[in-house]
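Handout, page 2. Input:
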Amino acid sequence: MSDELSTRLRELAASQAIAPTVSGAGIRSRAVRRGRRRRAAAALGTGAVALAVVAFTLTLDLGADPDHPDRRRIPAATLSAPPSAATAVPVTGTVHLRGRTLTVGDRVMPISSGVVGTPTPTGLMRVVATYDVREMAVDVSPEGRSAVKVPYVVELRDTDDEPVYIGALPDDLKALGTYDVTDGWIGLGADDAEWFSARIRPGDHISVITTTPPTASPPTTTPPTATPPTATPPTASPATVVPPGATTP
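Output:
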């Protein structure tokens, strides 16, 4: 490019240039303000990105598979476990098979239960139903087993859900409190069976045991052994010697 052409181009550029309307100090001030705005925008953008990342992480954690091994769980020490002690079941009555009694509150009623070949089951039983009359079996020698209609029947269920019945034993058997005649059910007198059937409710519990509870005997008090008094022998006084010819006062 020739020197003349270069000169002409510079003159043309100089003639077309527009003088700045802002001083150099104003331009620098504008540049500083633009820089501050850019930094503020960058800081806001960084914070928004951080919040988005946290929200996304929480969403993934809440939607994770609860059975996944990497899922965070509450430490076992902070979980409150229910008490392990079992609550005792209240018992409405107790059947003593060997003593041949049914005790409900203060009322003790004689019974007859299952014979040797068909013994009455034992354990904690639950009342499930009552019947006005039900046919059951008795076993009396020498006649053997025969069916009888039993009124005032209460049905119990043991822990295996097997039924056990309590009802009124026929009066002519004369077995209450004396010997066993049933095929496993528990016989009462007619008045006792009527009272028991009217008092008992489904859901009540009856305990059937083979032995009567031991009778509490009062403690034996051993009287203290008396110590005989110690006899103190009398103290002997020394004898007074009287010389011959002297008169004793």
